[in-house]
From TrEMBL:
The lineage of its organism: Bacteria, Pseudomonadati, Pseudomonadota, Gammaproteobacteria, Cellvibrionales. This is Probable cytosol aminopeptidase. It comes from Candidatus Paraluminiphilus aquimaris. It holds the Pfam family Peptidase_M17_N. Residues 349-356 form the Cytosol aminopeptidase domain. Belongs to the peptidase M17 family. It is found in: Cytoplasm.
């Protein structure tokens, strides 16, 4: 992947300067003016001609590429719709389109003229943040396991001409924030896209140590199976029983606040491959279960972004990593295991394994006396039935935490939608043979899964993000980097 640098300037220099590519926003019923007009003049007036001919349009998200002159080789006009309606959703439509079009272009350097996107400094800052984030994410290209990779995006330098919209310092900060979030999301995507034979629990542990070496504020420790056994993590360990790959509990600590400040804990489901175990999944589509460590991957991306942003809080990321395989040693339906909390669990379906690794990790984080705990998991297929691939499922035992996460999702364009948990659903988990069973008896599978987790999180404020529909959509589309933008926004508000 190419390294991207992002800088802000008040104005784009045209005349002697040579530009490979300049992006110009177009608003409905607004003449090309200011810096855009200067760029168009240097490009020989192609933009105005394209507008006059109806070729370039201000329709939201519409991208028109034009060849200019030696001075401005390419102009890319991006439709922004009505300037009065240029709120968050419209901004995101535009920054997404710019990200995709710069990634597809052959330009190594690009300048974006933004002097006309808003009169309000805060809204301008949010636009710049989305811009840096979406360009960074647009330039992500998977090559890790491809022998002869197809050429990917070549953009390495993004300049933004911000005019008088906001101060240079504010512009720089917004771009830096966006870049940190985009690069964090790309870290997540890379880990999540890797195949199960590369990205094993041990591989995740190694990557965590590498991340820890990269940032002074991060420290990493890894609990092996022996250590987990001594802590009584019988539920987590039961998932890896059928696998030759040893399970790992990975702890990544970020200290940006005072040592005694209660930390925010993130707990990620890290099933590096989910065959279903003895309750084996059907062959068709099973390959997509390499994405079953999407929650864990998001913990890595968030921890990097938090370190990069120097947030003044403490954050602890915990990854419960295991491989779910059938074998002669595998856990069987009907087996009863004892979790770290002391509660016993009857495993009626070995494919409901995410909750089994998470419950012990959720008990483990009690020792940190957390301010709040959020777990992230590709937990249930049922959440895709409920919310599709648009919103992440959100569950919580605390209303203000649920509201904070919902708001962070809205603000970042990485939406989450709350669903209920209560005793009417929870009672589906009761069984004769243990304190609970690991699957419900009826419908609402995402809710009963959350109710299962809620039984282990009574001692702190907790939320659960079911990202089965949002961390990835299909093998071909690959990992999305969600919910990194949501989580970074949530932590930034602390
Ligand atoms: N990893 C799956 C959930 C999943 C499904 C993630 C589709 C992403 C896309 C999880 O471990 C699982 O198998 N859940 C079962 C639970 C059931 C056995 C109660 C499911 O959703 O079918
Ligand atoms: Mn499963
Ligand atoms: Zn799973």
């Amino acid at each position: 992947m190419t390294k991207l640098t992002v800088t802000a300037a008040k104005a784009i220099k045209v005349g002697n300067a040579k530009h490979e590519l300049v992006v110009v926003p177009l608003f409905t019923n607004q003449a090309v003016a200011g810096q855009s007009a200067a760029v168009d003049a240097a490009a020989g007036g192609v933009l105005q001609r394209a507008i006059d001919m109806g070729e370039a349009e201000a329709k939201l998200g519409k991208v028109t590429s034009m060849i200019g002159t030696e001075s401005v080789a390419r102009i890319v006009a991006v439709g922004c719709g009505d300037r009065e309606k240029f709120g968050r959703d419209a901004q995101l439509a535009v920054t997404g389109a710019i990200g995709r079009s710069l990634a597809a272009s052959k330009a190594k350097a690009a300048t974006i003229v933004t002097d006309n996107v808003s009169d309000d400094a805060d809204s301008a800052a949010s636009f710049l943040e989305f811009l840096a984030r979406d360009v960074a994410m647009g330039c992500y290209h998977y090559t890790a396991t491809v022998g002869s990779p197809k050429p990917g995006p070549v953009l390495t330098k993004l300049s933004v001409a911000v005019g008088d919209m906001l101060s240079a310092a504010k512009a720089k900060a917004a771009l830096h924030n966006g870049l940190a979030i985009g690069q964090g999301a790309n870290v997540t995507r890379e880990l999540v896209n890797l195949p199960g034979n590369v990205c094993t629990p041990s591989y995740l542990a190694k990557e965590a140590r590498t991340l820890g070496r990269k940032y002074d504020a991060l420290s990493v420790s890894v609990l092996d199976e022996k250590k987990m056994e001594s802590l009584g993590m019988g539920s987590l360990l039961s998932v890896g029983n059928g696998s030759d790959e040893p399970s790992k509990l990975i702890v990544i600590k970020y200290q940006g606040g005072n040592a005694k400040d209660a930390p925010y804990c993130l707990v990620g489901k890290g099933i590096t491959f989910d065959t279903g175990g003895i309750s084996l999944k059907p062959a068709k589509g099973m390959e997509s279960m390499k994405f079953d460590m999407g929650g864990a991957g998001s913990v890595f991306g968030v921890m990097q972004a938090v370190a990069e942003l120097n947030l003044k809080i403490n954050v602890i990321g915990v990854v419960a990593a295991a491989e779910n395989m059938p074998s002669g040693c595998a856990t069987k339906p009907g087996d009863v295991v004892t979790s770290m909390s002391g509660k016993t669990i009857e495993i009626l379906n070995t494919d409901a394994e995410g909750r089994l690794v998470l419950c012990d990790a959720l008990t483990y984080v009690e020792r940190f006396k957390p301010a709040e705990v959020v777990d992230i998991a590709t937990l249930t297929g049922a959440i895709i039935v409920a919310l599709g691939h648009e919103a992440t499922g959100l569950f919580a035992n605390d209303d203000s935490l649920a509201e904070a996460l919902t708001a962070a999702g809205q603000a970042s364009g990485d939406e989450a939608w709350r669903l209920p948990i209560n005793k009417r659903y929870d009672k589906q988990l009761n069984t004769k043979y243990a304190d609970m069973q690991n699957i419900g008896t009826g419908s609402a599978g995402s809710i009963t899964a959350a109710c299962f987790l809620a039984r282990f999180t009574e001692n702190y404020k907790w939320a659960h993000l079911d990202v089965a529909g949002t961390a990835f959509q299909s093998m071909q589309k690959g990992a999305t980097g969600r919910p990194v933008p949501l989580l970074v926004e949530y932590l930034r508000q602390k």
